[in-house]
Structure to design on (205 residues):
């Protein structure tokens, strides 16, 4: 319960915080106003709140279903499920059937693009093509660029709640793998984000 100007609001949350009783906790909130009710949803991180907002923008996904998804999956796991089109991971959440899982994947692909500030899909494709045409190692050329894919992947990982050191560790892994790998055409930003999420979700963490 939170009091604002003398009015008490009950906050709906997923997993209860582990903080000791009496501790001061911070929640990032989303306020839902309906005809007969006003509901306040709270999240321990900004990334969870932002993912909640993306989820409820999907056709047929209401606040309760979105909250259930975020109770069982982190924002990072949600993104990985979408980019890998892993409907099985989504169906593991109570109340999510095959049709809903497919709809989530289909609609969230577009709604997750705002994780990449000032970066359009067409621009990413143009850069990939340009890199492929460069002489020498394409990925080495990419690494030499002060801005481009690495900055945008790092920004996306930070927006998903990863620490900066985790994001940079994942980027270093990607640079190592793709420098040693055979050249590939049409490498998209989505591929690098997917690889970063897989690296950061590995069991050893």
């Amino acid at each position: 319960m939170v009091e604002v100007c003398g009015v008490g609001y009950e906050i709906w949350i997923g997993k209860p915080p582990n903080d000791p009783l009496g501790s001061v906790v911070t929640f990032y909130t989303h306020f839902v106003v309906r005809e007969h009710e006003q509901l306040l949803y709270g999240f321990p991180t900004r990334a969870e709140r932002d993912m909640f907002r993306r989820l409820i923008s999907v056709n047929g996904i209401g606040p309760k279903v979105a909250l259930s998804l975020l109770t069982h999956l982190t924002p990072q796991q949600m993104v990985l499920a979408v980019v890998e089109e892993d409907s099985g991971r989504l169906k593991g959440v109570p109340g999510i059937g095959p049709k809903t899982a497919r709809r989530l994947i289909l609609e969230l692909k577009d709604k997750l693009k705002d994780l990449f500030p000032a970066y359009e899909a067409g621009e990413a494709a143009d850069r990939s093509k340009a890199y492929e045409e460069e002489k020498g190692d394409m990925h080495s050329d990419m690494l030499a660029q002060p801005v481009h894919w690495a900055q945008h992947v790092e920004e996306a990982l930070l927006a998903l709640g990863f620490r900066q050191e985790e994001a940079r560790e994942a980027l270093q892994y990607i640079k190592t793998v793709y420098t040693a790998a055979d050249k590939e055409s049409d490498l998209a930003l989505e591929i690098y984000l997917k690889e970063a999420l897989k690296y950061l979700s590995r069991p050893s963490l």
